[in-house]
Write a structure and sequence with these properties.
By secondary structure, the protein is α+β, with helices and mostly antiparallel strands. It has helices at residues 12-27, 33-44, 46-54, 99-113, 128-136; strands spanning 2-6, 58-64, 67-79, 82-90, 118-124, 140-150, 153-163. Helices cover 37% and strands 38% of the residues.
Length: 164
Amino acid sequence: MIHIVRATIEDLKIIQSIAHLTWQDTFRKILSQAQIDYMLLSFYDLPHLQEQNRKGHIFLLADESGGKLGFTGFEMNQEPEKTKIHKIYILPTAQGKGIGKKLIQAIKEIALENGQTSILLNVNKYNEGAINFYEYMGFINIKSEIIDIGNGYVMDDFVFELKI
């Protein structure tokens, strides 16, 4: 049985590991290897994850008998009364088990407990699998944006919203 558990500061290494295991599968057809490497180094080095944790980001892990199969990282009130999902990845070998649904449900519950009215997330415009999943979960595409992330790279994303 899969359980969603709150990550501890010690679990950030597991989150980093899952990111490194999932990003190749998720982005190799969308981004250059150089951009994948740059983004993993920028967004998933331990000091960056620790700083996010200190700033109030909540990290959840999907656990099955002690094995960690996926994670999410989010923060409340990035915009007033809106929770922002910054990260949600599931190991390729664990996809199709309902983990994404469980993670989204856990985020919704925490957001509602904290007076949030919607959940936002960014998704790469060419990540069709993720887009299909978010639409299936009830998210609506509300806009496009291009975000400069440095080193000559951008994130070319849709912004999705789920009213809760």
